[in-house]
Design a protein that fits this description.
Length: 693
Amino acid sequence: KQKQLTTAAAMSNAPIPNLTPQGVTQLYNHSSDTNIKPTPTLQIINIKKVSGSASSNANNERYRVVLSDGQCYIQGMLATQINYMITDGTLVENCVVQVMDFITNLVQGRTVVILLNARPKGKQGYKIGNPVDVSTAATAAASSSNKQGNSNYNNTTTNNNNGAKPMYNQQRQQYNNNGNNNRPNNMYARPQAVASNVSPQNRYASNSYNNQNNNSFGGGGGTHTSNPHGNNTLYTPISQLNIYMSKWTIRARVTNKGPIKTWSNAKGEGRLFSLDLLDDSGTDIRATFFKEAVDRFYDLMMLNHVYTISGGKLKVANMQWNTCKSGFEITCDVNTEIHEVKDDGRIQRNVYEFIDDIAALETSCEVNGNADLLAVVKSVGPVGTVTSKRTQQELFKCDLTLVDQSNTSVNLTVWGEEAKTAASKYDRTPIVAVKKVRVSDYGGRSLGTSSGTNIVLDPRGEDVGVQRLETLKSWWRNQGSNVSHSVKSISGSAGGGGRMVSFEDRKPIRAIKDENMGGNSASMDNKPDWLTVKACFTFLKKDKEGGPWYTACGNADEPCKNRPKATMTTEGTWHCDKCNRAMPNCVRRFIFSACITDDTSTSWVSIFNEQAEMLLGEGITADMLYERCFEGSEQEMFESVFNKANFTDWVLKCRVKSEMVGDEQRVKTSVVNLMPVDYVQESRDMLAAINKM
């Protein structure tokens, strides 16, 4: 090995095997004004992990590398999106790689290469050549060039009387032929930056935030990327931002845009919205706009567009709500400078850190953590509502069933407008790239969206990985889309909220007693048990005095939403204790008991308004039955509506909980969701279960 090193050092002037001659010089001299980037093959001769701050996590780890072509070396940093190449052992010291994408930054007067993408070419086992610092070589070469130039000039002056042409004129003519009077004839010299005139549309050149090195806190001299638009603005990579910077400008893509929200506290009230911004360093950051800034910037900031931003205030990120990689976040006001710029394609649409597959949610993902995944939307559940305990507002929700090539499915809950449009948006079983969904153990494993979640339909291969995308497409085309193909659901039967579970996770009615369901709710945790069962309704108890309903408040707005009970007053109005109002009318809502049966047992269950309307049929409401059957003369209709629902098969999701009735503890089973049995799908599921026996 020592002999090989000596031989390599001795051959430093010869072409270096496997490495691109002057490859480091190509990176050093590269100008951001051109879209053509060199892709030299170089050796990584040193790798060092950079110590992070106390607030950093594994996703923010940075690695310093030294790249060599055997003659010169240059300092570099790995972009965080390729950190996995370090952790999986692809990149080690003395390995050879082809640089596929990079940017060059100026850090304290030194050129540093940010390695965005690299292709491994092999592991060498020893350092090739005896490289020197490219900046030192550039200085030495420039000095030598100047001396040679002076010598040539003196010689030509001395020999001019003999009729020889001045060498100086030849050198100047050579520069003119190259079309660049600012570049000396030196392969190590960096191109000289020339500031162009600033157009009225771009005010950054005259903006006080452009003076990046004038940081009174000493933090403004961080890494900067050159400006591809020709003015003298320098952009700070998001990965280098910190709270000690008072003047900075970033260039980033909007990868996620949240809705406008209202807030109210002891200091006042107002509006806000948030954006996730990603730059070409592969790091994203949250930016939040308040009050007047909402009116100014909300319509301006468009998803997937690229902007330059300066003048915001940096603060430490609240990682409980902020899922971005940066340990800081930006607060923007009306004085923040924002301008849309041309998208040159350098910034990715999104940077994903995909888990291996859905099955890995059970083994590799922490509960309450975040995950990125690529999957197919197999089905879309019905839109439901829940009432927020904090605000008492009604929230819309919808469950999507995601599957992938691991033959595993998981439920993803979407909220708000996304839930309302889910049926039409995901009706053609699209492939989705889901970023930053929260992992929950609510019913086995389930997923939920948050303010930082981003769902992309039919993602591009260059954004999610061509091979990963093609693997999923092939599996869905050949196996997953087959109706007889069964998958395992990891969103198990313990889940609540009305979510239906898979055929394999259903239980018989006798499980209520056999498993002592509802027994835990009598203890301190007060948590119910959940049961999904296929059963037949054998009796509906409709003969309650006054009808199988109750009279609810007529106020459809907050805080009642037609839910609390209302009682008739002596004046003939309906009074509600919750809103303390008297309304001229009430709203009747179903509530009654029923008996369900399967081949193992029977059980009484409670049926509430939404589930009763599904059971009794479309268009049947409690108010309609009351008007036509109790106030009118259509008593036979009342009987026929309930008789029609008897002896029908349904898949029921039930909540089983122990409650006090008088002085007695009783287990109560309530239906929270139901759907009619699809006999075709039920038969397929039964055949698949038999084949597994």
